[in-house]
Amino acid sequence: MKKIAAITLALLLSACASAPRMAAPTALRAPTPIMGTTGKFMSPYTEDGTVAAWVEKGRSASAGAGIGGFVGAQAGQKLASNIPFVGGMLGQAVGESAGRAVALKMVGGEEFIRANSDMSFNNIDDLAVYMYVKNSSHKDFAEALKLTQDIYPELKTRYAQAIITASSGVN
User: Quick check: is 92 in a domain?
Assistant: First the structure.
């Protein structure tokens, strides 16, 4: 019995040790942003570390994205009644698209975002890691991250994985 407990404990500890982890922001190197707005993804923070004007303007945008998600879920339910598996996926896509459209409108549109940003990225993972390293201690970080995820839905799915990947070489 003791032998089984010891083996179980050893397996548990090795599983914990090999589980993916996020390094502290101070242990990672931030990707270099594109100075200006020529990249595909705009930073919600300016070069001096303050939130961009579009973040200030969009403080209520997450509620709009939630409305879009609800509309999409309703459309998905309607489609799902006719096409069970595909309807749910379409509903999610409609929800994300509607949520993004509402969030964009709440912040003043893509032109306003570009006009009020001074850093951008061509890669969503670079934006995620940069925000984590440079801005995660900012008082408005959670709100800025949520809004940025509403604007760029792919950031929702890539954020944690991008940081875990960046953390892989850090002890």
Answer: no
Tens-place pLDDT, residues 28-62: 999 999 999 999 999 999 999 999 999 988 875 45
How does DSSP assign 61-80, residue by residue? HHHHHHHHHHHHHHHHHHHH
Residue 66 located in a structural domain: no
- Does position 159 have pLDDT exceeding 70, yes or no? yes
pLDDT of 27 over the 80 cut: yes
Number of domains in the chain: 1
Alpha helix locations (H) across the chain? 2-18, 53-57, 61-82, 84-107, 109-115, 124-130, 141-151, 154-167
Cα dihedral: 33, 114, 46, 159 (round 10): -60
Kind and range of the H or E run holding 34: strand 34-35
In three-state secondary structure terms, 119 is strand
What is the residue-wise DSSP string for 138-159?
Answer: STTHHHHHHHHHHHSTHHHHHH
Supply the range of the domain harboring residue 119. 2-58+108-167
The predicted model scores a pTM of 0.70
